[in-house]
């Protein structure tokens, strides 16, 4: 751990503690320790398994030997047994076999051990005793057996002949094997642990580099360099996803900051103008008004200007409030159709006085989940615009339909649908550049400068649509403008009105109704 | 009417009081919630104009809730710089009868004051018929007659006329109409209300010579027999 991995190059005091404050180091250390522990466990298991198997094998061999010798004894007594033992010793290439037979008095009869070991007293247990063979000291595994009565002794009714057999194996070769196994396993463990530690260090490095990039980028941003972005590898892995998420967040922050800057600039400009006007009017009246009527008129105009300022302020605050998303608590399920009908009714009279026709085309039921009064306001703003910028004898069309599929980038909840509200006018339209910026606060197209308005209408519509998770699209038609609101409809709202967007055979869902001027067939819902 | 004004800003308070006195009302003024509460419970008022944010520990909503808890049903008009929809809902839930946001036009405030004062007097008896001069509105069959002649009205036009008639002799502002007839609480920018009123006039006034619906400059409309 020569590198304590400081993320910030400040205060290099107490380096040992600082090292453990690094999360990546802790993770990689934990990984290394876990790896080493599990390999110890694994190798111990191999060791015990192998050694145990070897010991069991020796014991089995000794038992088998003893059984075979006992059979020879029963068949031929001492001479046969002695012969067999000699044969076996000759054939024993490893030179590790130990045999001995004694008579009841303890006298040597056969085998390669000169005297019965004093410690071997019982015939029901294993003995490990040191021995010396060919000048080398070693360990022998021994077992003593009582030889059963022979044909001769049987006749005397003796079950036990009193003769004893000693069978054993010299364990030197096995000890060597055991040491070898132990050594190689130990070395293997050391290697594995080394590998684990270096792997852990590698992981630590990679992790640290990633975190360092994030930390460097975010700290640069914190210090005001908002143009910095996380580098992308481009393979779409988790790190890339994190980087992408961070970049997206930064983009949003930049947009918000731009928005705030724009708003403050706009306030400075757009509110300064009416305030200046009001102030000038008041001052002018105070200085130059010749009589009370003139004074009163000037004051009234100034009050009107102040009212405009208030309206702009209120609109700005409302947009800001909508953009925070706080109003989502007022969401409810309702049928949008009567709501749109009411709005259309309100503006139809205005349209008529301008010689403009207002046409409606809506599905019979428009289930929706959202804020009723905000949707009212959005549609009111759009109708207001459409009528304001339409020439006489043209038509404004308001249509609202539900479609089952997601359009564009909109993400609908599973089973949901898209509500498409469209307002088409045949008015002066907008240039492409203007359409790009139309929903910005205080933006007013060149052609619209001379009409009354604050330039906040579409900005508010956009805020409202975004609050509902939808989007606003502007497009041109010849002549005029099409404003399309795409609003996702929650499946719960659809369910409440028994509406299945995926059922093509839903009856009465797309019957359209036109209302123009006074005599419309749907007046009962007004 | 005997009106209590609880408002801490002296400019607004004196302006409101002056205007109300000019309109023929008696006013009692106070600049804090404590005195306001004391006056509200100890004297009988026809109306209370109440600011929401008040110094002295008791704010407007506390005052309102307290007097409502004592079964005091004096109409209360809340006057506040808190202009959010939520703030308005909060104020009405606490027992307020109307809500005017600052800054306000005095004509708007006065119209609402008059409407509230009237409401206190007329709402006890459910009416089935409204009559002003030769105009008759049957609220049950939803038919309108003037000088014995039936007038065909759209449902919304009917509600507009009904609203104006219920406030006969009082100024009704555009905002009041938007809220009372359409139930909209936003500023529709263009003069939508004027258009609807003028359409109503075409049907109710124009064929009959004498107008009933009058435009009140800088304020709104008033329905009255000449």
Automatic annotation (TrEMBL), chain B:
OmpR/PhoB-type domain span: 127-225
GO biological process, one term: regulation of DNA-templated transcription
Record-listed 4-aspartylphosphate modification sites: 51
CDD domains on file: REC_OmpR_CusR-like, trans_reg_C
DNA-binding region as annotated in the record: 127-225
This protein's GO CC annotations: cytosol; protein-DNA complex
Keywords (A to Z) from UniProt: DNA-binding, Phosphoprotein, Transcription, Transcription regulation, Two-component regulatory system
The organism's place on the tree of life at top rank: Bacteria
Annotated Response regulatory domain residues: 2-117
MF terms (GO), sorted A to Z: phosphorelay response regulator activity; transcription cis-regulatory region binding
PANTHER family linked to this entry: REGULATOR OF RPOS (PTHR48111), TWO-COMPONENT RESPONSE REGULATOR (PTHR48111:SF76)
UniProt protein name: DNA-binding response regulator
Native source organism of the sequence: Novacetimonas pomaceti
